[in-house]
Each structure stands twice: as C-alpha cells, then as structure tokens.
C-alpha cells in the first residue's frame, strides 16, 4: 500500500512538512498548490527535494472551476490547465485533481461536462498527465461521486478518471457501497478524512473540522471497504483541513496520520478477508484485562506522605524490589508501586515532574502482540537496562512522556511480583474494601486530545464516548472517556486550554505530567469511607449547599443524605443506575485519588459533580509542605 498525505494536512512550511512526512513513514505526498507556490525553489528543485526525502508526488492539487464554462471563460480554464500541466512535468508528477466547479457562471449537464473532460484528456495525454475528477460535497452542479463517475464514464478517456474523497461522500450521507459498482482501474486516487458529526455548512465543516480516520464519527472504514472491493490498488492518502492541526507540531501530526492509515487499512483487511489488500499484517487490536499496576516516581518527604496516604486508604506495603528502591503496596487487585530510585527513568521523571505517576502497567492477553501492534502504529518504544533476575517487560511511551508496560499470564510476565519482589511480612490490619482500578484520568493540552484518543483506540480494543464539557470555576476542560469493550480499562482524557483551570494548573505545576488521578472501585463506598476515616484518611470536604441541592435533585431518603454529607460522598444517577464518589485531598502539586461505586448500569464518571469537586479542591490550594516546582 502506498501511503500518502496532502501537505495541507499538517503545519509548517513545505520543507518542514516534507521532513515530518518522510520521518513518519509515508511514501508519497499530495502537493497542495499553496505550499508549492510559497516555497522559494523552482518546480524542478522542489520535485528533487521531495524525491530526496524518499517521497513520490502522488497528486498535484487543486485545480478548480473547470467544467461547464462557455466562451472566454472556457478557453481560460483550458489555458490554466495547460500551464499547470507544464508545472507538473517540472515537479515530476503525472496526476492532477480537478474538483467540481462552484463557478457562478458554470452550466450543468452530464454530457457538457463529459465533453470538457474528454477534450482535457486529449491535452493531458500529450504531456503524459492524468486527470482525476472529484465531486465536492458543495459543488454547484456535481456534488455526488455517482454523478462524477457518470461524467468520467461518458468522457471515456484513458487519461481521465475518478478521485474519491471519504468526506465528500460521507458528509452528504451517500451510501459508500455505491462505490463498489465503479471499476477499480477508473479510480485514479483515494483521499480519506474523518470528522465529528456537526450540523453545519458543508464547506465550513470540511475546511475547519476534518480529522484523521478514527478521530471522528464518519464511517470511513465502510467507505474504504467499498473502495477495496473495486480492486483499486493505488495510493491511499489523507487530506485534512483542521484549524487545530494548523497550529500543531508537524512530526506529531504526520505520525498520527500514518497511525490512522495503518490502523484503518488493517480494519479493512480484517473486514474484507476475501479481497486481496496490499497492507502489512499486524496483530489485531488488543483486549485489555485491567490495570496491572500504577507506579509513582517519588522521593523523600513526598514519598513518606504518599505512603501515609496509601496506608490511610487501607493499602499495605507488601513487598520490596530485590535490587531497587521500589516498594509494592496492595489492596484487592490494586497494586501501587512507589519508586524512589535515584537513577533510571523514574529518577528522570521525578526530576522533571516531582512526585508523578510515571508508569501504568496494563494486563493484556498477549504482551508481545500488543507491543508489535503498537510499534507498527508508530508508538515510541521504551527500554532501559534489565538487571539480573528481572523480567524484560515490554513497554512503550505514553501520554506526557510516561511509560506503559504490558503484562500477560502466558509469557510468565504476570509473575513479576513474586520474581522481583521480596515479601515484607507486614501484617495486613484489614483493608478498606477497595477492589480494582475503575479508571485512570490523564490530563493534557486540549490540542493533544485527538492524538491520544487515536493512540488508545487504534492499539487497543477500546471505544470513545462523546466529548463532554467539565466546568471549572476558572475555565472549561474538555473530557472524553475511552473504555475497553469489557470495561476492564477506563481512561478519561482531560484537555486543558488555560492554566487557570485545575487541569491546566496541574500541567503547569508538574511540567507536563500525565496522570492526574486514579479512581478505585469499591462494592460498598459507605463502609469503605468509614474504614478509611478510622485509618486517618482525610476526605475532600464538600459544602452543605451541595447536599441541599442533592435533596432537591434526587429522591434520596433523609438518612441517605445525612450519610452522604457525613462522609463527604458525592452522588449522581441516570436512567441506567447510580454513582457514588469520594475524593482524597490533593497532594504533590495536584494529584489526587478517587473512590467510586457503580450501581447497576451507570457508565459515566459523575460529570455533574465535577464543578463542585473542583471548587472544593481549589479552596484547599497547594498542600502544605509540598515544595513548588
């Protein structure tokens, strides 16, 4: 499969774009005319520059307002085309995109347009050029790929073919299966883009809100399955117009684009097993069986304070690493690792962020397959020296430069706790009823959310929930939940746009730390809260006004309301069930723990409670004794 991307899809000048695109692993580019014109090189120099990067120019675009014109306007359109063909020969590319006209004086008619393209095809053939016709979703007379195909069919010229773009088809809700009737050899090029479902003008939607396949809501996989069924074997390319991307980092955007294409084509290959699709075989999306461990990089007084907090929540220090300053704390199936090493990755993470969650281990069915798929999808590998007696657990880089390790049972990696840790023999005085990790909350800049959402859903068998707004007293935070299909892993991505929000201040204080809080499950939050209080746990205190509002919003008994208020437990419910929440006070510059109980089918995260929880956390300010970093 030849992977391509339009230069308009990522930020930077042309040369920065080319370097990023080549580094990401693409083999070709669509050169957008604006990028080409803005560069100081001649067409021949630019063409050579592109080839020096190991890239082919798969398409020159766009050529606008061609078909359906008359008189002098028609002659001018053909003159423009001849000039572009000369430029293309200088660049070293043979395919041009002609998008359906929006010219106010253009006339309609399938035969009229077909005649125009047949004549253009004759001119193109003389210069070794192929012409691809694309139906813009907002085209004046042609806005449907079926009409564009009929024009190409009637033009009946070997140098004239069809260009398909998933956005233009799917935005108009045209059945992509109609593509299956088009001969594959008459499809000259395929462009892909996803987009969130937004009810707005098609042109504005396309020019500002496209994103990578898998980042939006359009059925791009169904579109590409239909294309594959035609026998098309040409380039598959991304054409993304997005305001957010225009201010992003070229390398990151190009990497996301490559990841999205590889994941999409792997999905197509699996959905169409009877069709030969020339894509590398990679392991299937991986099911996640839960969070194996959460590791903190910490030191000194901060480590002591964290250990004390864990103790007050019912955790027990059950093991010490055989050769490192690493302590294992456990309760139920929850494992918390405190790493106080003064060398290695954890030390670097502590120096950069202070006390931070530097590593999250996931329990998966097959660690090797998980790593193989992640690396095929452009994840950054992570390795550090493995001492004698230690297991070589595969890992990749994750959000904020943190690490994600993969543990499975069949390979023996799940035995790491007995292999690498010596029991402390500490007496378990009785836990507080915490059982598993319900979810992990990762904080990032808002413009990174699409990237990390794609990271998780392309590597793992996970689905995205709709994005929601979390109201902070000092701004807005966008939040999106991603969960495994078995709900054994839940991750919330929280995007901050200003340092004034709690999420934004955490990013600023921790110099880009990733995980801001971890939520633990319990089967009885009231019993858990009482036990933790007896152990010395200091809960985040909620104001009486909050519980007065609960009285008005929900049909809770006076006894239950009193119990909630006494224990500082928050409450929410929906049509499927109920949700209880209890929070620790912030520690180490904004980290905190949460305890939750889900009742029946409640699948949310207590979003209506977030403004009140955030306000309570902000009232406490910086924990005393925690140094500013």
List the helices and strands and how they pair.
Layout: E1 3-6, H1 14-24, E2 28-32, H2 33-38, H3 43-52, E3 56-63, H4 71-91, E4 95-99, H5 110-126, E5 130-134, H6 145-155, E6 160-165, H7 166-170, E7 187-192, H8 202-209, H9 220-229, E8 236-238, H10 243-246, H11 250-271, E9 288-297, H12 300-312, E10 316-321, E11 326-331, E12 334-339, H13 344-353, E13 356-364, H14 367-376, E14 395-397, E15 403-407, H15 416-420, E16 421-423, E17 434-445, H16 449-459, E18 462-464, E19 468-472, E20 475-484, E21 490-496, H17 502-509, E22 515-522, H18 525-534, H19 544-553, H20 558-567, E23 570-574, E24 577-583, E25 592-600, H21 610-620
State the helix count. 21
> What would CATH call the architecture of the largest domain?
Alpha-Beta Barrel
**What portion of residues belong to β-strands?**
15-25%
Q: Can you identify the CATH superfamily of the largest domain?
A: Divalent-metal-dependent TIM barrel enzymes
Give the end-to-end Cα distance, rounded to a whole number of Å.
48 Å
Biggest sheet statistics: 9 strands, mixed
Q: Structurally, how many domains make up the residues?
A: 3
Task: Give the rounded overall mean pLDDT.
Answer: 94
Q: What is the CATH fold-level name of the largest domain?
A: TIM Barrel
- Which bin fits the share of residues in helices? 25-40%
CATH class term of the largest domain: Alpha Beta
Rg value: 28 Å
Q: Which geometry do the CA atoms define?
A: elongated
